[in-house]
Write a structure and sequence with these properties.
Number of helices: 3
Number of domains: 2
Shape: elongated
Number of strands: 0
Order of helices and strands: HHH
Largest sheet: none
Structural class: mainly alpha
Radius of gyration: 32 Å
Helix content: over 70%
Length: about 100
């Protein structure tokens, strides 16, 4: 019985604070600031961090370009459909609205 109470006291006095501290460190490591600190502790140089940031930025730019390409394709399909629906006047397209 004395062993169990000693174990319980040790768990409360040592184990619980360690669990709280470890949880706090884990949560901090998941933030951008925490990743930066961990990279510095691992020995990552500033150049490696800058390269990682640039790679992230390039990934965002690629996503934006893909979105623009999808919109351009949609617009091209809509314009093609509208051109097919318009009556053929026999005149070449000039890109200007017809005179009225």
């Amino acid at each position: 019985m004395a062993f169990m109470s000693l174990l319980f006291v040790l768990l409360l006095q040592i184990g619980l604070p360690l669990a709280v501290i470890a949880g706090g460190i884990w949560l901090f490591a998941r933030t951008d600031a925490g990743r930066t600190v961990l990279d510095r502790l691992r020995g990552s140089s500033h150049n490696e961090l800058a390269l990682r940031d640039l790679a992230d930025e390039i990934a965002h730019v690629r996503e934006d370009v893909m979105d623009i390409q999808e919109r351009l394709d949609f617009t091209d399909r809509v314009l093609g459909q509208l051109r097919r629906e318009l009556p053929d006047t026999g005149q070449p397209e000039t890109g200007e609205p017809p005179q009225g």
